[in-house]
Amino acid sequence: MKFVLSFIVFFNTLLVALLAIGFFYGYGAWTGPGPLPVDKNIVIARGSGVSTIAETLENEGIIKSALVFKVAVKISGKESQLKAGEYTFPAAITTRETLSKIVSGDIVQRKITLPEGWTSWQIVQSLKANESLTGDIAAVPAEGSLLPETYLYEKDAPREKIIAEMKAAMDKTIQELWPTREAGLPFDTIEQAITLASIVEKETGVASERATIAGVFVNRLRAGMPLQTDPTVIYAITKGQIQDEGKGPLGRRLLKKDLDETDSPYNTYKYPGLPPGPIANPGRAAIQAVLHPEKNDYLYFVADGTGGHVFSKTLGEHSSNAAKWRQIRKEQGN
After folding, report:
1. Within 10 A of 198 (CB to CB), how many other CB atoms are there?
2. Is 178 part of a structural domain of the chain?
3. What are phi and psi of 163, to 5 degrees?
4. CATH code at 78?
5. pTM beyond 0.70
6. 114 and 205, same structural domain?
7. Residues 293 and 303 placed together within one structural domain of the fold
8. Distance between CA atoms of 73 and 50, rounded to whole angstroms?
9. What is the distance between the alpha carbons of residues 209 and 286, in angstroms, rounded to a whole number?
């Protein structure tokens, strides 16, 4: 009997000791610095259960013990609150902080910027080249249907999702801006406004010039003059599938021969009025400029050699300015 009592006491003491050791180990693993030596990104896949997540975290060196993580999730009742996605875990993050991050869905937000004036083909090519996106794009969207902007996304987001967001953003922008347009503009439809905005976008990269150039084109439309804008001829030739080798969208200079011989409704040297559709995807500012063009008497503009343009009211002034530009280009070796 004495032996049995001694054994029971010994067993209970051992059990208490083991429980104490387990408690202090678990508490240390829960609150103490984790084993991660440097910041690290990992992806928790959709549909992952608690065990899979815990094992992934341990295998990636984020936490010390998958068991401690699973027990903590069970005790806290947060099994259904763990969120998939890409996470950045800082060095030495604790298991408690790790669980909190995954429960809060503090995922990595990536971003992609699609510049104003890109064609839909260019946008699709850029999305295809982005290896952190997934899936195919069924077809190149209609020109002018996408709003160039910076978009946030998660790793492995579908490419079609970005396209859908761009379309929705353009629709929202048009719905907001179109009702505010000035009266008496020489176009009647949203598509015509987007078409003119795409031309303005391609003609200048200087923000302060957009409304001025829009005013020039509005003046030309009202006077029944051809727009005579080079980007429309380039689009007629390329159909938006531009060269990207540092030599311009054609891979060469646009020639007078192109202006004279390109027989397309997009050639605004041969056909008066607006072309049949947009030649690129304009940004919000270009659309705003077209709906609220600057009131001026200019009918012409030409590059000034500094990235901007010089404007003129008469053909004589324009011819003089054009001669100056040709001389600048000659001196630059272009």
Report:
1. 29
2. no
3. -60, -45
4. 3.30.1490.480
5. yes
6. no
7. no
8. 8
9. 10
pLDDT in tens, 25-39: 555 567 788 899 999
Using CA atoms, how far apart are residues 284 and 294, in angstroms rounded to an integer? 16
Pairing of strands 150-153, 110-113: antiparallel
Answer whether residue 334 shows pLDDT above 70.
no
55: which residues sit within 8 A by CB, 6+ positions away?
Answer: 66
Residues 83-135: pLDDT tens digits?
999 999 999 999 999 999 999 999 988 999 999 999 999 999 999 999 999 99
227 belongs to a structural domain = yes
Residue 290 sits in the same domain as residue 316: no
Name residue 158's beta-bridge partners. 134
What confidence category does residue 6 fall into, taking pLDDT thresholds of 50, 70 and 90?
low
The contacts of residue 195 (CB under 8 Å, 6+ apart) are 144, 274, 275, 276, 277, 278, 279
pLDDT of residue 303: 87
Domain hosting 237: range is: 184-297
Q: Which helix (H) or strand (E) holds 69?
A: helix 66-76
Helix 66-76 and helix 2-31: axis angle, to 10°?
A: 90
The CATH number of whichever domain residue 328 belongs to comes to: 3.30.160.60
Q: What separation in angstroms does the CA of 181 have from each of 82, 168, 223, 279, 309?
A: 48, 20, 20, 21, 25
**Same domain assignment for residues 89 and 67:** yes
Selection from 134, 142, 309, 89 nearest residue 217 by Cα:
309
